[in-house]
Amino acid sequence: MADARWEEVISRAKEGEEWALEEIFVNFKNMVFNICYRMSGKREDAEDWTQETFLRAFSALKSFRGDSSLSTWLYRIAVNVCLSHLREKQPTSSLEEVDYKLGGDDEPEDDLSEEVQTVLSRMPPFYRTLLILRYFEDLSYNEISQIMKMPLSNVKIALHRARKKFKEIMEELEK
What we know:
Blueprint: H1 3-14, H2 18-40, H3 43-60, H4 70-88, H5 114-121, H6 125-136, H7 141-148, H8 152-174
Helix pairs in contact: 1-2, 2-3, 2-4, 3-4, 4-7, 5-8, 6-8, 7-8
């Protein structure tokens, strides 16, 4: 869709027009589901968190100023939803607790291996988020900076630490 078209859709959605809200949902639901699925590792959680993301987004849509793209704004809401749920859960303590299933129509196109999902599930949520945004959602450092509301230099440092932590966990699991 062209930028002018999106401006119209967003303007109409802010006025509560159902077709515009549906247009946003249809165009961004897979993107939001993918981030939620990768953060949770569970289809049921991802579905719930996706729904929660859109409920929060639509209730806050009037505050969307357009300083960033709509997708960046939605990513930020999805990340906040995921992090809030992950903080409520205790970290996974064994491989048997990882409830990750491959296949299915709604799962991310480039499914993660069980081993990668296991490592991600053992990472601190902040590092997990950064790795998913960068390497699985293929976002630029600038986009991650906007989503995470962090200076670009901090994103680079944090990603370096996240990769190091990922490697440490991977090595622990291989023992």
